[in-house]
Write a structure and sequence with these properties.
15 helices; 46% helix; 13% strand
Length: 359
C-alpha cells in the first residue's frame, strides 16, 4: 500500500537523493536511459547530466530542472503519489528485477500482499476473446487475487471490466502519464479500479503523452507485478507477446488460451502453447492452474446467486438469466471456486447434490 500523498513532501525533504530521482523521472526519458544515467552518475549527477548537456531535448532539460518540492506540490494537486525503488511501498516482485523502474507514479492503492495475475491480449480481439477475458477477470476476482493489465482496448479492458463487475481489485499499468485519459473510453474504468481499492500506475510523469515507444517498456512492469501471466488472444507480434517474453525472463509462469489455427488473433497464443506455455481452457481451469502457483483461492460464499436447481449448463444459465454464455460460465466458475458447486462434464450441481460419477 502506498503512503498517504501528504507524506511525500516529508520524505523528499528528508532525503535529497529521492528529490533528485523525482526530478529525473519528470524528464520523461526512456527507462533504459534513466537506468544508465543513475548507474553512471548517481541521482544528482544524472539530473545535472540531463539539464546541462545538449544530448537531451529542451523539454527534458527544462522538466528535469524544476525543483523537487515544486513537483511534489504538483503531484499532490492531482492526487498522485510516488513509490521509490528500495523504499517502503515499492512492489516486492519489481524490486527483484534488474530493470525494474526507479519509481512508480501511483493513483489509488497498490495492494502489497495479495497475489496478482496479469491478463493481457490483443486490442483487436474477437467477441469470443473479449467475453472470455471478462470471464477470467470475474473468476480471478472471485478467487481473491489482484488482476493486472495494461488497460488497453480489447482483452485488457475486458478483463478489468470482469474484475470490476465481480467486486475485485485491479491494477492498470499505463504507457503515459496518469493524468492522460488513454484510451479515452477507459476513463470510467480507470476510476472504477481506483474506487474498488486498486490503482493505476506508470513510470512516466503526469503530462506524458501516449507515444508508441513508451508502451513496450511498460510491459515488463505488467509481468513484474504479477506471479502469473495469462494471454487470452494475441497475434504473432504485439504487446501481449512482449509481456509474455518479459514474464519468462523474470521466471514468471505464462498461460495461454488456444484458439482457431486460422485466426490471426490466436496465432500468438497458439505459438506460446507450442513453445511451452500452460494451456487454459475456461475460467475454472484457469483458477485450478493458478492455485498451484498462488495457493488456494479464497472460498467465500457468493450471496448473489442461489443454486436451487438439480444441475445446469452454462448455456442453460445464460438463457435463464438473459446473459452471455461467457458471463454464465464465469458465474458458475466463481461458485465452483467458492465450493458451492461441483462440475460433472458440462453441467454444474450444488455441492452434495450432484449425481454419482458415471451416471
Amino acid at each position: 500500500m502506498t503512503a498517504p500523498a501528504h507524506l511525500l513532501a516529508d520524505v523528499v525533504a528528508a532525503r535529497a537523493e529521492l528529490g533528485w530521482r523525482l526530478q529525473l523521472a519528470f524528464a520523461g526519458l526512456h527507462p533504459d536511459s534513466v537506468r544508465g544515467l543513475l548507474e553512471a552518475h548517481g541521482a544528482a549527477g544524472a539530473v545535472r547530466r540531463v539539464t546541462e548537456s545538449g544530448r537531451h531535448s529542451a523539454r527534458a532539460r527544462q522538466a528535469a530542472a524544476v525543483p523537487a518540492p515544486q513537483r511534489v506540490a504538483q503531484l499532490a494537486g492531482v492526487g498522485i503519489d510516488v513509490v521509490f525503488r528500495g523504499e517502503p511501498g515499492y512492489p516486492p516482485h519489481l524490486e527483484e528485477l534488474p530493470d525494474g523502474p526507479d519509481l512508480l507514479f501511483v493513483r489509488g492503492r497498490l495492494p502489497s500482499t495479495d497475489p496478482a495475475v496479469a491478463v493481457v491480449g490483443t486490442r483487436r480481439c474477437s467477441a469470443y476473446g473479449r467475453n472470455l477475458a471478462m470471464a477470467y477477470g470475474r473468476a480471478i476476482a472471485a478467487a481473491g487475487w489482484v488482476l493486472v493489465s495494461g488497460l488497453a482496448r480489447g482483452i485488457d479492458g475486458a478483463a478489468h471490466r470482469g474484475t470490476v463487475a465481480a467486486g475485485g481489485v485491479g491494477i492498470g499499468v499505463l504507457g503515459c502519464g496518469l493524468d492522460i485519459a488513454y484510451p479515452r473510453e477507459h476513463k470510467v474504468l480507470r476510476d472504477q479500479l481506483i474506487d474498488g481499492g486498486g490503482a493505476i500506475v506508470a513510470e512516466y510523469p503526469p503530462g506524458t503523452p501516449p507515444e508508441a515507444w513508451r508502451f513496450p517498456p511498460r510491459n515488463r512492469i505488467i509481468s513484474g507485478l504479477a506471479r502469473a501471466v495469462v494471454v487470452v488472444e494475441a497475434a504473432i507480434k504485439g504487446g501481449a507477446l512482449i509481456t509474455a517474453a518479459a514474464a519468462l525472463d523474470q521466471g514468471t509462469s505464462v498461460f495461454a488460451t488456444p484458439g482457431d489455427i486460422g485466426r490471426d488473433s490466436a496465432a500468438g497464443t497458439n505459438r506460446l502453447i507450442r513453445d511451452g506455455a500452460h494451456p487454459v481452457l475456461d475460467p475454472a481451469d484457469l483458477v485450478a492452474e493458478l492455485e498451484l502457483i498462488l495457493g488456494p483461492a479464497r472460498r467465500s460464499h457468493s450471496p448473489q446467486l442461489k443454486w436451487d436447481w438439480a444441475g445446469i449448463s452454462p448455456a442453460q444459465l445464460a438463457v435463464s438469466r438473459h446473459i452471455p454464455v461467457a458471463a454464465a460460465t464465469s458465474l458458475l466458475a466463481q461458485a465452483e471456486v467458492a465450493g458451492e458447486l461441483v462440475r460433472r462434464g458440462e453441467r454444474y450441481y450444488p455441492t452434495g447434490g450432484e449425481p454419482a460419477a458415471g451416471r
